[in-house]
Amino acid sequence: MINVNNFVSQEELLLQEKYKSQIRRQIDGKGLCAFVYTLGCQQNEADSERIRGVLRELGYRITEIEEEADFLLVNTCAIREHAEKRALSIIGRFKHYKAKNPDIVIGVCGCMTAQQHRSEQIKHSYHYVDFAFGTSLMHRLPEFIYNALNKGKRRFMLDSERPQIAEGLEIERESNYKAWVSIMYGCNNFCTYCIVPYVRGRERSRNMKDILDEVRDLASRGYHDITLLGQNVNSYGKDLEGKPTIADLLNEISKIDGDFMIHLMTSHPKDASSEMIEALSTNSHRTNHFHLPLQSGSDEILKKMNRHYDIDRYLSIVDELRAKNKDITLTTDIIVGFPGESEADFEKTVEIIKKVRFDSIFSFIFSPRKGTPAYEMENQIPEEIKHTRYDRLCQIQNEIANEINQTYVGKEIRVLVDGKSKNNENVYTSRTEGNKIVHFECENDYTGNFINVKITRADTFALYGEKI
Ligand code: SAH
Ligand code: SF4
Ligand code: F3S
User: Fold this and answer.
1) With contact defined as beta carbons under 8 Å apart, do 204 and 18 qualify?
2) Residue nearest atom 1 in ligand 2 by C-alpha distance
């Protein structure tokens, strides 16, 4: 089941080990600390956990306070313009740290820096940045840091031509009860609006054995919530020998002991197979939540988006999911204002939102991404129209979410406790198995544990209850 071409070579990993030991010697006893700022999706969160693992191995203490850091790294996102602007403003504010202390090392990585124009922009306009590298070069972080610590030339590297997976990197997980497990990297789908395939390369699947070992380890350490990550987890395994499927992987995970739930993030409707839905619904670790990105309710727009499904197919997957699990909560992603989206197209999106009645939707205003086909398309929608449509969609969805949430009042449900609410001393925040937020009052701290709560009231965004 191993496809050796998917993996970074042993020689390369050994070379990085050499850099690691040199850095360890060089910074030993200096008490240096490192700060990592993460933007973007769960893939980036997961990458940052690996980066922190490597930094810890190098001898850095990880800090949440950027002012005290000796090494600063921004892990960037490129999905929408707003994400890039935020990254650039954070990089901008790092300037004065370097001015105060020239020994500080500053790096930028992630999806934004995998684009040539952004890499060049950082090189030329942010002179204090020591290095920037694309998403597939993460395993070379020790080399980049070593070079910067020893005042080598500034390095700006895009991605390797054939991005590969680096197994065995240390992971410093943020949580001790919730974990991300990447099962594949990259994307082959080239939805016409999306930058991801250009910045994360083609699909590469991890070996099933490596994934199962990681899940087994997490389960044995008491993790309760495990999310299998990939841009399209439904096409897992297509590049591996023997072509194991996501259903095979889920069935193997089902055999692992432990009190944990399995989530998938994200599933592309075009590859949502009945086997996958069956393997989820019969799984001993099944959850009651499924995220199925719709993007638009208009077949014509879906075609222009290169999504490879139509509304009938989408609705049949929804029916299948609900038939297998009547309690399932459904969430989706919607893009408003794709080029050429007419009022009638938008109304079709509204119609399907009303028909499916999602528990929540993540709606985004279309943001043209340089290098993608939609950037070049005619009939770009004016900003005001995009905003009016976006507001209307949110208002309709808020009503639906509120109505759905009211049906929970009076019910008793199991939740996984996430910790104290920010605003109120004795109030805790938690998630149901359907991924709904529940705030509840309690004298004791059950963070990281499952408990049962009775729902007493609800609104659009959350449920409220008390511990039973
Ligand atoms: N691989 C995932 C999506 C990753 S990006 C999937 O296919 O579902 C997360 C969401 O960002 C997408 O589902 C889409 O709704 C939104 N998105 C992607 N590119 C965008 C763009 N150019 N403008 C606005 N939203 C975008
Ligand atoms: Fe982007 Fe489409 Fe790939 Fe998702 S499936 S990452 S939306 S190209
Ligand atoms: Fe952003 Fe890259 Fe994720 S572009 S959404 S961080 S895959």
Assistant:
1) no
2) 194
